[in-house]
Design goal:
- By secondary structure, the chain is an alpha/beta fold.
- It is built from five helices and five strands, in the order E-H-E-H-E-H-E-H-E-H.
- The protein has a five-stranded parallel sheet, with helices on both faces.
C-alpha cells in the first residue's frame, strides 16, 4: 500500500496538508502516515525535567493526532498511523522516508505569509535530491472545496 506522509506540527497550514493526504488516500486506496518530530532542544534540561518534558510532548502529539485521525476515519474512511521521532525535522523526515518503503508521497502544507512557505519546505526544496519520493506542497489557504475538487 502506498502511504502519504504528512508532517504534524502546530502550523495552520498543516490542516490542509492533512486534508489533502486523507482525501488522496481515500480516492486512491492508499494510507496516511502522520509524522511528528520532537526537536532535541526541548530537552536540554536536567535529566529528570527532560524526561517529563519529553512525555508531555508525546501526550500533546497524541492528542493533536487524535483530532486529525478521527476526522480521517469518520469523513474519509482512512485510518492513519502515527510516527513520532526525535531530532531535527528535515533529517528525521528524510530518515523516515528512507526507512519505510510504503511511503510514496510526502505532503507538506505551505504557509501563506510573507515570511515564506515555512522552514521545512524551504529546506526540502533546496535538497529535493535527498528524497526518493515526490513531494506535494499544498497551499495553506486553499479552500476545502478546492481540495476536494483536485483530490
Amino acid at each position: 500500500m502506498r502511504k502519504f506522509l504528512v508532517v504534524l506540527d502546530d502550523s495552520r497550514e498543516c490542516l490542509n496538508a492533512m486534508r489533502f493526504a486523507a482525501m488522496r488516500a481515500a480516492n486512491t486506496g492508499g494510507g496516511v502516515a502522520i509524522l511528528s518530530v520532537i526537536p532535541p532542544d526541548e530537552f536540554n534540561h536536567w535529566i529528570g525535567v527532560g524526561a517529563v518534558m519529553r512525555e508531555e510532548a508525546r501526550e500533546r502529539i497524541h492528542a493533536h493526532f487524535e483530532v486529525f485521525a478521527k476526522w480521517m476515519r469518520d469523513k474519509q474512511g482512512v485510518d492513519p498511523e502515527l510516527v513520532i521521532r526525535e531530532g531535527e525535522a528535515v533529517p528525521e523526515i528524510v530518515a523516515h522516508v528512507n526507512s519505510d518503503p510504503e511511503v510514496g508521497v510526502l505532503v507538506l502544507g505551505a504557509a501563506t505569509d510573507r515570511k515564506g512557505p515555512g522552514p521545512i519546505i524551504s529546506h526540502i526544496t533546496r535538497n529535493f535530491g535527498a528524497l526518493p519520493i515526490p513531494v506535494t506542497i499544498v497551499p495553506g489557504d486553499m479552500s476545502k472545496e478546492r481540495l476536494e475538487a483536485i483530490t
